[in-house]
Amino acid sequence: MNAHRAGLAVIASLLPCTAIAQETLLLRHEAAPGTIVRTAFQTVTVLWAFDRRRFESADIGTASATFLRGLGGKTVVHLAYDSVRTRTRGSDGSWREFLMPVDSAWVQVSVDDRFRVSGRNEGRQPVGVTGLMRILTGLPNLELPGSRLNEGDGWSSKTAASVVPGLRNETVPPVVDGTVEIVLDSIVARARDTLGFLSVAGQFPPTTFVDAMGPGRVTASGDVVGSLIWSTSWNGFVSGVSKTRMTVVRAAVDGTTGAGEELRVEATTRHHVIP
Fold first, then answer.
1. Mean local confidence (pLDDT), 168-193
2. Which terminal CB of the chain, N or C, has fewer other CB atoms within 10 Å?
3. What is the DSSP string of 71-139?
4. Does any domain span residue 159?
5. 244 is a domain residue
6. What is the pLDDT of residues 48-71, one digit of tens each?
7. Residue 220 vs residues 107, 178, 255: alpha-carbon distances, Å
8. pLDDT score of 17
9. How many domains in the chain?
């Protein structure tokens, strides 16, 4: 049993297991004001630097989403880390572990029942730690479909991936925008809950940045694959795993590239709600 299904088994074991027929599933995120949902997450990142040295890091923690009633009846979600423990391993193979200071790290967003954001405020975000919006929506910037889904149906959504800290662009944060295709693979209906098992695959087309480490530019591109599990009793994703791969190519001022001027990053994130 893989990690995300194991997490789901804990949640599903608390619910009646009588199956009922259901042919379609409507994904809508709704929560009463005052609801608090806690999520555990883990992100493991491996980086192969331009000079071919290998680095690893892992952050393990929990986060809370508090649902509030905003102006005009909109839903406001306040997201904050409860705790984050980070481990890093340098090119010499030695590990370091420390607690990440996250007291000032928070995000507050106005969202509708399809995760579409209409307003956002945030505190200072710690570099390299799993993003709070990703914990809420399964993938960064993921929006839910506009209609009911049958098994095998899917939809497209925008998403984003962080680029290696240290790279910057003249006008935008160090992220690469992309598009994902999400497919509802199967529906499992129960007396008090219906589960949707979804697969995810997407691409991040080449995006060029200023090279913060010297003259010239770098171009980042990549892909993402994963799976998500939706629960109608939780009105949200209760478990998920995704793997994002990014390649960053450094070009000299004249546009040429040479050996050792490619950087690769692979990040795997797992999350599940805490019953």
1. 80
2. N
3. GGG-EEEEEEEEEEEEEEE-TT--EEEEE---TT-EEEEEE-TT--EEEEEE-PPPTTSPPHHHHHHSS
4. yes
5. yes
6. 888 888 889 999 999 999 999 887
7. 26, 11, 15
8. 44
9. 1
Q: Which two tokens stand for residue 77?
A: 């979600």
d(CA 197, CA 8): 11
Task: Give domain status of residue 24, yes or no.
Answer: no
pTM here? 0.83
- Per residue in 194-241, pLDDT (tens digit) is 999 999 999 999 988 776 666 667 888 999 999 999 999 999 999 999
Q: What is the dihedral of CA 219, 220, 223, 226, to 10 degrees?
A: 180
CA–CA separation, 106 and 133 (whole Å): 10
Question: Pick from 264, 36, 60: which is nearest to 136 by CA?
Answer: 36
CATH for 220: 2.30.230
Of 81, 32, 120, nearest to 271 (Cα)?
A: 81
CB 155 within 8 A of CB 196: no
Please give the residue range of the domain that contains residue 187. 3-18+30-273
pLDDT band of 36, cuts 50, 70, 90 = very high
pLDDT, position 129: 65
Q: From the CA atom positions of the chain, what is the Rg in Å?
A: 20
